[in-house]
Amino acid sequence: MYRYAKTLVGREAYRKALSNFSTASNNTPQVCIIGSGPAGFYTAQQLLKSHSSVQVDIYERLPVPFGLVRYGVAPDHPEVKNCINTFTQTASKDRVSFLGNITIGQDVTFAQLRNAYHAVVLAYGSAQDRKLNIPGESLSNVCSARRFVGWYNGLPEDADVKINLDVESAVVIGQGNVAVDVARILLSPLNVLRKTDIPESVLDSLSKSRVKRVVLVGRRGPEHVALTIKELREMVKLEQCRPNLIPGDYEHLKALIPTLPRSRKRLIELLAKTGLDIPDPKLASVYATANREWQLRFLLSPVEILPTEDGKAVAGVRLAKNRLEGEGLDQRAVQTEEYEVLECGLLLRSIGYKGISIDPSLPFDHKTGTVANENGRVIGQKGLYASGWISTGPAGVILSTMTSGFNTGKHIVSDIESGELDTSETKGGKVQILQHLSNKGLQPVTFDDWNRLDDYEIKTGTRLGKPREKVTDVEKMLDVLKH
Ligand code: FAD
Ligand code: NAP
């Protein structure tokens, strides 16, 4: 934790902390946002645009901003991270403060925030993932895609995830874009990954990887995959790698394609073309010499993860064969009594992220992992709002999170203007919270601090011939900031 030297605890610490931030005058609407991912930043952007005086404070549990843009988006997709430029512009406005390294529910209670602000926005994303709840899930080399992604993206809490890549086959359960991301990182040539901001320690592990086959397992059919066309195209064109698909899985798609909605048609056409092995002369030579491969398997649900002889690590997964019930794209998988075993030395579970509650007072739906809300207004709690994945569930890209953030921002301003949100009482805002933090000997990381850390990472990366070398340890981040 970024603590003051002992002599600075108390009044002096408080004065110093305060000097780092702009403060609001009386009667200014004070809004705080929990979480500095896309939802947090887009909500802030909309608040500033729609209201001339509102003060916005963004609290973030990590010393660094941007949530899954920094720690989720694949390192070989740097263009997706361009939204960081817009977030940086928002953060540099006088009416916005970033208070990093402050976990709400731990360093500051939710009740303290509610008391200090006219409105609180929950934008803290989905911090967990869904489990399979089958035997063997705790074996070694069984890992959630969420933690695997955190590891290759340098997320401090995942820096020490133990992944053994001294295996030939990996199975990924799930066929969404996260599953494709992890498969692509496992299968990409090292010279491609070296140009990204994957931390050096992870590149070292990947350089020793023996993984040559990744199987993505879906519980439904090829027409139901949750991945998108750009990601599929990348897999089809992956260097030194070939698809190894079972043509029989794709035959029925020919008749189905004309009936599909336009958005889905192109994806399924490409999938069918790849599965039915319709030769593309440009790719034929790549496939002929490829030393790695990916597979898609369908209509299979994992029922047990099988151990190695010593009972410690994963050796395979037993899957029930499924049949489909219902109509069209909403068909659901029903397990049969037939089974199949896939051998693997690494199993990644990629069946979705999951939100958690940060306070018992929140109307939390544990099934969906979301805070109950209507258009971003938390149900039954005046002055409380939600945006992004914690309000919608863990689905959707940055663009849909932007829409969610903008909508929530608009609703807050409309509530201020209509008087629905009472801002007549002067609130302490961050001045009140900084006082509390100072008493605890805590000093938030500011956006200027982040800019310095950003420079440090970019400089270190440049020396290594990459865009940045992330600092993957919170203490080390704080150490860099002391100098
Ligand atoms: P997050 O981005 O998760 O932000 C939440 C923030 O809240 C985090 O910074 C977190 O540290 C903070 N926080 C959590 N708890 C607390 C607390 N108690 N106190 C203070 N702060 C807290 N979309 C695309 O468009 N393109 C892509 O290529 C893409 N790749 C993705 C790859 C992965 C692996 C994943 C999982 C998602 C990807 N997405 C992509 C989707 C995109 O990341 C999400 O739409 C978006 O990040 C959701 O934003 P959010 O702000 O709701 O959550
Ligand atoms: P997702 O898109 O919801 O995919 C989850 C996958 O897991 C689906 O194939 C789903 O199959 C399967 N699944 C769920 N429960 C299962 C179970 N119990 N057993 C077996 N399979 C199960 O989630 P995600 O991949 O985590 O992605 C989250 C969001 O981030 C998505 O909106 C995604 O598009 C976005 N994202 C985007 C990018 C990008 O744009 N490049 C990259 C990464 C993530 P069913 O369909 O049968 O439920």
Major sheet: arrangement of strands: 6-14-7-8-10-9
Residues in helices, as a percent range: 25-40%
Low-confidence stretches: 1-9
C-alpha Rg, in Å?
Answer: 24 Å
Q: Bound compounds, please?
A: flavin-adenine dinucleotide, NADP nicotinamide-adenine-dinucleotide phosphate
Give me the CATH architecture of the largest domain, please. 3-Layer(aba) Sandwich
Query: What's the multimeric state?
Result: single chain
The CATH topology of the largest domain is Rossmann fold
Largest sheet: 6 strands, parallel
Report the top-level CATH class of the largest domain: Alpha Beta
The fraction of residues assigned to DSSP E strands is 15-25%
Determine the mean pLDDT: 95
Task: Give the count of helical stretches.
Answer: 18
What is the 3D shape?
Answer: globular
CA-CA gap between termini? 16 Å
Decide which structural class fits the backbone: alpha/beta
What is the H level of CATH, i.e. the homologous superfamily of the largest domain? NAD(P)-binding Rossmann-like Domain
Say how many strands there are: 20
Number of domains: 2
